Amino acid sequence: MCPGKSPREPLTPPAPPSRQRPSRRDSFARCLLCESPIADTPDAAAGPGAPPPLPPRRAPRILRRPLPPFPPWPAPPPGPHPRTFRPAVHASPRHRFASMCRIAGAPPRILPPLLLMVLAALQQAPIKATCEEGTLCKTGFPEDVYNAVISRGVHKGQPLLNVRFRSCEESRKVNFESSAPSEFRVSEDGVVYAARSFQISPGLTEFLLYANDKETQEKWQVAVKLALEPEDSVKEQKKMEDIVFPRHPNKHIGHLRRQKRDWVIPPINLPENSRGPFPQELVRIRSDRDKSLSLRYSVTGPGADQPPTGIFIINPISGQLSVTKPLDREQIASFHLRAHAVDVNGNQVENPIDIVINVIDMNDNRPEFLHQVWNGSVPEGSKPGTYVMTVTAIDADDPNQLNGMLRYRILSQAPSTPSPSMFTINNETGDIITVAAGLDREKVQQYTLIIQATDMEGNPTYGLSNTATAVITVTDVNDNPPEFTAMIFYGEVPENRVDVTVANLTVTDKDQPHTPAWNAMYRMTGGDPTGRFTINTDPNSNDGLVTVVKPIDFETNRMFVLTVAAENQVPLAKGIQHPPQSTATVSITVIDVNESPIFVPVTKLVRQEEGLLAGKVLTSFTAQDPDRYMQQTTLRYSKLSDPANWLKIDSINGQVTTIGVLDRESPHVKNNMYNATFLASDNGIPPMSGTGTLQIYLLDINDNAPRVDPQEATTCQTLQPNATNITAIDDDIDPNAGPFAFELPHHPSSVRNNWTIIRISGDQAQLALRIKYLEAGIYDVPIIITDSGNPPKSSTSILKVKVCQCDLNGDCTDADRIVGAGLGTGAIIAILLCIIILLVLVLLFVVWMKRRDKERQAKQLLIDPEDDVRDNILKYDEEGGGEEDQDYDLSQLQQPDTIEPDAIKPVGIRRLDERPIHAEPQYPVRSAAPHPGDIGDFINEGLKAADNDPTAPPYDSLLVFDYEGSGSTAGSLSSLNSSSSGGEQDYDYLNDWGPRFKKLADMYGGGDD
């Protein structure tokens, strides 16, 4: 912006949209060709030491044509010059440009020639210059080394410092890189931050930063050195610090230029569990514009106006930031706040700045084991260095600080045999391993270790500790082979017995019971070549059970001597051999018993023609006794099974004879085979018996004549292709069966006149009409069938043929079917029974209804059905009622002076049908009965009122009254006129009241009856 012009007025008219943006050289030339010497304007704040304003001067004309080159500019005289270039820090942009444009020792009047020289130089080569800071622009890092002091614990994403890169061209794009990208990274605006959380080692940490130009591939580098802050830095932070809002980018030469941030606010480190006093002052936030404006400060973010709220507060006037209570790093490790500065009208004066408050960890948490009791195991006989288990403890403190760095150690071991230090623990990982040999489960089965975890890297003076218990079980290995308790075992077994245990083999094993190293397996190494024995292991006792699996014959083998070896389910440990005690001998004696007789053969087959008559010898079926070494016994034979009862056997010699005719066609014969079972018994102790089966294969003879099948057929009454197929069957088999011969008999002659038969195969023939028409009906057609036996057999079979009228398809029509249709005898009987049952049910229902009506009529009290003169009769099942249901006052039936109102019990106190527990009140007996005329008038009035009541029933119904309680003015019906006898009253007038009161007249006017 040229002096003398308004800050908002451009030096030249704005270029059209299609024109490109002016270059730096044109802008610089424009600044030189101002109308007056460069001076500060009233709205620019000149800093101290700024030169005084220059008097106004007319600007020279701008040369439109190129100028010849000028000679080199003479060097200034040596020595200090009275007017050296010293730009003011707080001067306005125009003032700084005026200072830059002044040349040492040159008065203002020489500016026009100087301008001409500058214009000539601009035509020769581009000038890399800037109006800012008055020096020639040099691209790169302004510093050779950047130094920063940080705390030891660095968090991921924590900003460390800001490096500045100077670019003389706005279009230049630069990428930043770090020589240690795994630990440090650089953002686009030059902020160096931590790539991960780590600990800074003592001394200096150095690395390089690189800036790469994407277009020109130029590269610049700068060194960064990080130093660890001293331990008392936290205490020094308690001193008041000021955080000033960074200045905004300044306006420059008619347009805004983007400027990178010059610095990053370092995080505030605040120790946790501070004791105050609170509120505790942290820093003071201020803006450099607070001298000219009245500002208000505020902070936002978690811990201020967001949950947890109220931890950090700020004085809106002074900008003093304070903490109100102790912090806990284990809950929140850092707070990210934003500070704001606004004027009294709420307008934003400064851009918000980020404030990071890191909570410094203190050693306020003890290590905690994940489990209070840890269980592990190790095989016995393990070598030193064998891994056992891992114990783990956690510390809520910062694991990257000493407060959270744990170390483990073993405090005690129980028992301490065979060595007090059988195990050791890795102090960093918590891995427990063996360090001594001699683990023997048979001696020590379990070890108990007390493990201690201490933070501060195990420092016993400053670290906090906690303990846990590690229980290590010594697991068993197969280092003890099974040993038999005896060298010889004895047993005995009866002959022919199977699945019986004959001997128990016992062993001892020092290994842990019911484990693969203890479980024994037995195998026979000799003495049983045929596999008659097997040895199973009892899972509870580990004994070997010798069992017989095949029958043993005493007459063949009387004794067995077995050799048995025992071993475990898993092999023995290395270096352990089987002792001689792992092998034993088993002697088994076979006991002779009385065996069952055996038929020889057990199943005997006999071939015999059927038709053998009774009393014929069929065969001889005998048995043998296998007991050769026992006393000779006698065998007896008997029949056990004979389904057709055709056979018998001689009890002494076993001769089988027939007692019936053998018939192959019997239902007891299956596939020409007949089976009979016989029994042979001895007289031994105990007596035994054996069975044998006699199979008789019956040979067929021609003893059965053939017959026709089926025995009924249907044909049409007209001569047409409508023959009936018939089949001949014979119970005999070939060659005594088919082929069969079919013919019709000669008598009666009508058979051959009406029918004809033709054989179509060996067992089938066709029966058809010989005449053209035959009346419909059922005809018995005899057919003679002869088989092919030698000699042949023949029979005459009657075939019932139904002749009917047929349709075009040869089927009987519906008319014929209807004629032939009818109900059978069973159906007719069933229908009649159903009708009778229905009639009986109807009669029973009618009788029940009449009896029910009679019972209802018998319940009428005053009016008989024949005396009722009204047409409509309605029955209302009203059960009971009291005087409250009556429309008349019963007190007229009793003397009023006998009523005692005070003795009447209120209604609703008890049920009306309940007799009172206490004594009922006694009323005085009336001295005289009411006049009969009063009663008649009362009843007449009641009847008249009832007849005129539209809601009343058509006639009075019977009401059943339960006990109504004491205190009733009506009393009981039996107490009416109880003071005088019936003979003292004259009730003859009741006969004059008509048929409605006939019952009442009979009760009172009937005399002595």
Residue stretches low in confidence (pLDDT < 50, at least 5 long) are 1-116, 118-135, 232-239, 249-263, 898-914
- Relative helix content: 10-25%
| Total strand segments | 54
Strand content: 25-35%
Query: How large is the radius of gyration?
Result: 68 Å
If helices are DSSP runs of H or I spanning 4 or more residues, what is the number of helices?
9
Average pLDDT, all residues? 75
Oligomer classification: single chain
Strand order of the largest sheet: 1-9-8-4
For the report, how would you describe the main beta sheet?
4 strands, mixed
Structural class label: mainly beta
Q: End-to-end distance, in Å?
A: 151 Å
Tally of individual domains: 8
Principal-axes geometry comes out as extended
Keywords: Calcium, Cell adhesion, Cell junction, Cell membrane, Cleavage on pair of basic residues, Glycoprotein, Membrane, Metal-binding, Repeat, Signal, Transmembrane, Transmembrane helix
Function: Cadherins are calcium-dependent cell adhesion proteins.
Domain Cadherin: 262-369, 370-484, 485-599, 600-708, 726-818
Membrane topology: Single-pass type I membrane protein
